[in-house]
């Protein structure tokens, strides 16, 4: 699991950081010029609106697939 940080002025989600510090996901919208970033993957795709589709070929993960990446190893 992880922690989300929101803008104190408008409530916009700024970033998500894994509790172990192993990964941080920053919203491209947190930057003045987001056009310089490359979209590498999409996640929680089952929750997106039907009319929401991004062009390009990249991994598209369900919520379960995303969580499985961060699950602790089984004993």
Task: Write up this protein.
- This protein is an alpha+beta fold and 75 residues long.
- It has two domains: 1-29, no CATH class; 38-75, no CATH class.
- The protein has one helix and five strands, in the order E-E-E-E-E-H.
- The chain has one helix spanning 63-70, and strands at residues 2-6, 13-18, 24-26, 42-43, 60-61.
- The strands form two sheets. A three-stranded antiparallel beta sheet has the order 1-2-3, with no helix packed on it.
- A hairpin with a 6-residue loop joins strand 1 (2-6) and strand 2.
- The protein is globular, with a radius of gyration of 14 Å.
- The model has no long low-confidence stretch (mean pLDDT 88).
Outline of the structure:
With 75 residues, the chain is α+β, with helices and mostly antiparallel strands. It has 1 helix and 5 strands; from the N terminus they run E-E-E-E-E-H. Strand 2 (13-18) and strand 3 (24-26) form a beta hairpin.
Low-pLDDT ranges: none
Helix percent band: 10-25%
Number of strands: 5
What is the number of helical segments per DSSP (H or I, 4+ residues)?
1
Strand content: 15-25%
The class by helix and strand makeup works out as alpha+beta
């Amino acid at each position: 699991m992880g922690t989300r940080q929101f803008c104190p002025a408008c409530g916009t989600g700024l970033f998500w950081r894994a509790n172990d510090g192993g990964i941080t996901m920053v919203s491209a919208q947190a930057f003045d010029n987001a056009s310089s970033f490359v979209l590498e993957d999409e996640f929680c795709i089952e929750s997106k609106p039907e009319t929401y589709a991004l062009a390009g070929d990249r991994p598209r993960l369900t919520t379960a697939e995303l969580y499985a990446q961060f699950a602790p190893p089984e004993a």
